UniProtKB/TrEMBL annotation:
Residues 1-19 form the signal peptide. This is Yeast cell wall synthesis Kre9/Knh1-like N-terminal domain-containing protein. The keyword Transmembrane does not apply. Pfam families: Kre9_KNH. It comes from Mortierella alpina (Oleaginous fungus). Keywords: Signal. Residues 27-120 form the Yeast cell wall synthesis Kre9/Knh1-like N-terminal domain. InterPro entries: Kre9/Knh1-like_N, SRP1/TIP1-like.
Length: 190
């Protein structure tokens, strides 16, 4: 039993040690970026323990109905390279509407690192992103479920995947592994 607990805690700690979740110093909640200009993404922890690919796309997200959804038709606004210093420049698209519900996301392996929500200033009026809002999952209506009509030939795209329901500065990966390690160590003490 003790061998199993030690093995489990070792695996859990190894999993936690390999998790590289970024902590951002830019952008933060007070940050204001301007559409059409360059901005800085900065992180405070080291991610040089990553092996293999060390360059990851930085995507722009917008909070819609409490979900962080990738802004459609934007693509990566820059790339984060863990072998370089703790900052990089990104280009903010000029076509973005003004808003205070933007965030960035970097995914490295299975780890998702979100920034806090921040503001983008723009001459484009702020409006709800109807394309992203309409693409969010909704419950079917009685009329839609009772209908047997054939869908039209209109082109459709896959809806953006909601990635989180909070504005955390960084989502902690490996939390379950750490919990398992603590439980295993606690069990050994009994």
């Amino acid at each position: 039993m003790k061998f199993a607990a030690i093995a489990l805690s070792t695996i859990a700690l190894a999993s936690q040690a390999s998790a590289v979740v970024l902590s951002y110093s830019q952008p933060i909640a007070a940050t204001q970026w301007t559409a059409g200009q360059e901005a800085t993404v900065a992180w405070t922890n080291k991610c040089n323990d990553i092996t293999g690919n060390t360059t990851f796309p930085i995507t722009l997200n917008e909070e819609i109905n409490t979900y962080q959804v990738e802004v459609p038709n934007v693509g990566p606004i820059g790339y984060l390279d863990c072998k370089r210093s703790g900052s990089t420049k990104v280009k903010i698209p000029a076509t973005l509407p003004q808003g205070n519900k933007y965030s960035i996301l970097v995914v490295n392996g299975g780890n998702q690192s979100y920034s806090a929500l921040f503001t983008i200033l723009s001459t484009v009026p702020g409006a709800t992103n109807t394309a992203a809002t309409s693409a969010l999952p909704t419950a079917p209506t009685a009329a839609a479920t009772a209908s047997s009509s054939v869908p039209s030939a209109a082109v459709s795209t896959a809806p953006p995947k909601p990635t989180t329901t909070n504005g955390a500065g960084a989502l902690k990966a490996g939390s379950y592994a750490a919990l398992a390690a603590v439980a295993a160590i606690g069990a050994m003490a009994l």
